[in-house]
User: What shape does this take?
Amino acid sequence: MRFPRPLVRVPALALIAAALWPLAPAQAQEQERACNDTAKLARLRAPLPHMARRIAADRPLTILALGSSSTAGAGASSPAASYPSRLAVELKTLFPDLAVTVLNRGVNGEEATDMLARFEKSASTDKPDVVLWQLGTNSVLRDRPLEHYEEIIQQGLARMKGLGADVVLIDPQFAPKVISMPEAKDMVGLIAAAATKRGVDLFPRFAIMRAWHETEAIPFEGFLAPDQLHMNDWGYGCLAKLIGKALAEAATRPIAAARAIAR
Assistant: This one.
């Protein structure tokens, strides 16, 4: 015997709705959470003349993301959710007519010296116009002495700038496993000082993530993976959005545009 169709459909829909209901608040919260830079920490101080010239000439732009696991995308749901992948999407939105390639050169567990060794081998092939160098976290987690770290940064910057690339340093993440280490703030300060001394840009990831937590009142689980170290999809996506806007602004501000035209 067949029951009337409405008697079958209503309970089925009710069961489906009941099953999905617990997911709705979490999904709504994720969608409603805005990616903010209220304190305007993400703005890059120095212009990006090489990137500006590529944009002015409508020539393909290659950005190399050099780093360790938080560049590789540990904690993300897929490689497409890593910050370099999301950055490529952001830049395509900002520069729809420009050919932009973002190379993800992140390797889990590496320290600055390991990254530079790889960079030396691949730079001639990658030929980056901009290098985003994420560094410092693993040295802090392993309690490495900082006395020679500035020299390592200096060597890396000399090599990168020698290729004619613009360079942006990215400091450690603000996460429980990092901030519990006694050298964390010293590393952040050292990287900032090296950027100023060498005339390159700094993207202050540590300060931006701290603002998410302390100013925007986002709990750590809102932007970090369960390991309390790496970012989750929202964290990587917001990071990419802020880096993309910062790069675009620095490369198109008047002084950068003037340098691009002059050369």
